Known about the structure:
Tetracycline Repressor, domain 2, mainly alpha
Amino acid sequence: xxxxxxxxxxxxxxxxxxxxxxxxxxxxxxxxxxxxxxxxxxxxxxxxxxxxxxxxxxxxxxxxxxxxxxxxxxxxxxxxxxxxxxxxxxxxxxxxxxxxxxxxxxxxxxxxxxxxxxxxxxxxxxxxxxxxxxxxxxxxxxxxxxxxxxxxxxxxxxxxxxxxxxxxxxxxxxxxxxxxxxxxxxx
Length: 187
């Protein structure tokens, strides 16, 4: 589906790539959509699990967010097609496939926010900023992979880290966190 696109990929191409028979495919899945959705959930669980685990052992907000981003970008760098499967293919598919993409972005947003200290209600950025950050990061990753820079995507950690922190702590504190000064007090 990454190679051909969701709508253009056929069950015949899927079974050939998987090295299974058409009969075996239909023993497990009733349709291409069901196969994609089930596979998507497995891949999503893996990536989010790696990210959750990466920040679990620190109480420092900046370190936790950075570790989670680094883990996610590391998975993408190790397998750029995985990024296209998760972040690009669903957008043209529609239906339940697209809903899974929206759910993934929400889960990523919550995972990164969970890594930060809570802000008082009056200083919390609007949810649209969180949505924009998640979508923007996804777009940066997809663009990098499509430009042939998938394996180098992890090198963009600092700029993505700063991008994620800025709405919560302000530009100066985010830049300081990137430079290693862990001053994460809200602006």
